[in-house]
């Protein structure tokens, strides 16, 4: 079975089960995934999501936000002026 055939049979429920298996390291019946199975499941989930979900709904998506010209992040705190350490 090639990747296109595999992705054609996947649906959201199967992908959800694969994601859970990757997260907890076990199949729904309690058997432990091998390292190879975990890797294959992860690749299948990523490939399916890339074809079927918008970017914001995919696993691992990080919203980087957008800033206008000259706008600073909320967490930006100016560095205090440098003060040398004085030993007494």
UniProtKB/TrEMBL annotation:
InterPro entries named in the record: DUF1315
Bias (Basic and acidic residues) ranges: 59-79
Highest taxon listed in the record's lineage: Bacteria
Region called Disordered, residue ranges: 59-88
Protein name: DUF1315 family protein
